[in-house]
Amino acid sequence: MNKLFAKSALIALGVMLSAVTYADVSLKIMSFNIQQPYNTNWDGRKGLVTSIINTEKPDVIGSQEAHAYMRDYILQQTGYVAFGCGRDGGDNGEASFIFYKGDKYTLDDNKSGNFWLSYNPTSPSKFGGDYNRICSYVRLIEKSTNQAFYLFNVHNYMPGESDYRMQAAKILVQRIKDTVGDEPVFLTGDFNSAEGDAVTQWLKSGSDNTLKFRDSYRDIDPSGNVTTGFGVKFDYIYYPNSDKYSCTSSWVVTNPAGASDHMPIVANVKYSGSSNPVVVESVSFKDIKTTYESDDTYTLDVDYVAKENRDVYLCMYDNAGTWNVIGEVHKAVTEGSGSLRFVMPVDPKPAVGEGYIFKCDIRPTGGAWDSFIDMKLAEDITITVNEDELDFSGCNIMDQIDAEISYYAPDWNETHTASASVENNVVEFSFPTATTDLWMSQAKIRSANGINLTEGVQYTLSCTITSNVNIADFDIKVEEKVNSFFGKANVALQAGVPCKIKVSETAAALSNAYIIIGTGGHGDNSIISISNIILRESSCEGVNTDINEEESENISIYPNPVTDVLHINSSNEEEKHNVINTNGIQVLQTIGNNVNVSGLSSGLYFINVQDKYYRFIKQ
Fold it and tell me: DSSP for 157-212?
């Protein structure tokens, strides 16, 4: 392939549209001050917090006071996705995290962010008082409809800091006006302002407030008594005072009690847009990475929105700066939205290096490259050495393996027989009957010497998994016992498409552990194979298996085996040579064609000569 073009042409010729729409938006929103963890029995009440979330199932949650580790617990227990940072920057301090359903919404990273309620809103700061004050906001796009909306979430200054609260409210309103445009917007938070407070009244009807808000709860119950804690209502779900916004129901969650010193407030709200929604066609990469291994094919997922029959393309360009296409595939789509998985062959196989580019675009059916409607680039992609081409035998804990089916019950009360086999270090599991639950079919892979991991050491688990059927929910991990594990990965398997898994993390101490997989969700007569199983210390880099087995006319090494001095017959007498062992660790570096190896222990080694490695044995 030899298609050349300039990046500027890509941008100039495409119709670059953002996903602005004007159709209806219906949401279930929660505002929840989770309460800071100090001396508040977080461990005793955290289950109540997640129970409320899992029971109410709001689409989006504006939270206040949570710290990063509280956020992580909530994510683990609920499956939501979170956005935001701590008020002291990064993961430091309390935050105004926004939780949302990741399976329902896509985050628009470019139009989401954080700012501080102060004179210096771009960095951790405050007008006064004891604590920095932050607002986090998101632009979310509903995957099924491509409808977008904003949500701003804030924890305002303390009740006694009324001047600061008013200044913060005015900054907040101005930022919303500058950011949102005509798109739907909602505002959640602990405003530390009672309903009769001056700040509350300004937000609703201030003469110099050009973006007045309504309280969704008071649209349902205009005058009834209500408290979200401390005998007052500090917590609100606001929307602009426009007839396009409405609330169908709103309530304060009072049960279970004790989750926080605030009670969460919930509202079912609606934005009524145009009766003829504008469908904006778009493409975007899904779960794109910055680093890939050198390979003959690349598997990437692309999300799309199409208003009629279209073609969706995926391309890869080399890193020479010439925009030369080395891979291209496309699929036809019909009206609607969805995700596509592309398996793209490339030629030539990319060399290790930086600066590669992936591109996806949507274009009219049969259209040329410059007719695209929307296009996205993933630039500065780094290609690394393919681990399939490295030899980790010297440091692979899984050097001799066996396998077994530890549990297999397609129905809860009915166990079945399945088979496990190992040949040439490839494990194959065979299941005759389909299951639907992830852990209804479990299998173990053991090492002859057991898996023993040292606490505090970083390990890497990698393998390639192939299934003859689709499996939407596949788990693999190293486990000693339930909830004591390392390297858990969860992936979706596509029938016949090899899936490479690689997990690196610092381990806890594990003794006599094993690799366990959960394969629920497979169909009848399914066969799952697992190859290239490597569990190693991450510091082991492996040996390149592209080894010259034969010496050329111009290059030779001798004697081999060698006792003290290894001689190299090469035209470059000033070349630097690296000697590595079977663990991929450099043990010697020297210049010249006479290499003193007398200090090395007996064994197999590799020496590089003119960019290739040659084997030799030290006696």
Answer: PPTT-HHHHHHHHHHHHHHHHHHHTTS-EEEEEE-S--TTSHHHHHHHH-TT-SS-
Domain 546-618: which topology? Immunoglobulin-like (2.60.40)
Q: What SS3 state is found at 253? A: coil
Q: Give the Cα separation of 298 and 504 in Å (integer).
A: 21
Closest CA to 424 of 451, 450, 401: 401
- Rounded to an integer, what distance in angstroms lies between the CA atom of residue 185 and that of residue 178? 12
Q: Cα separations (Å) of 255 from 187, 208, 259, 260, 265? A: 24, 40, 9, 11, 12
User: Which pLDDT tens digit goes with each residue over 112-164?
Assistant: 999 999 999 999 999 999 999 999 999 999 998 888 999 999 999 999 999 99
Of 1.10.3720.10, 3.40.50.10810, 2.60.120.260, 2.40.50.140, the CATH number of 390-537 is 2.60.120.260
Q: Is the domain defined by 279-384 classed in CATH 2.30.30.320?
A: no
Query: Which helix (H) or strand (E) element contains residue 111?
Result: none
Two tokens at 107? 């985050």
* Amino acid type, 125: S
Domain at 25-271: CATH code: 3.60.10.10
Distance separating alpha carbons of residues 414 and 416, to the nearest angstrom:
7
Question: pTM of the prediction?
Answer: 0.47
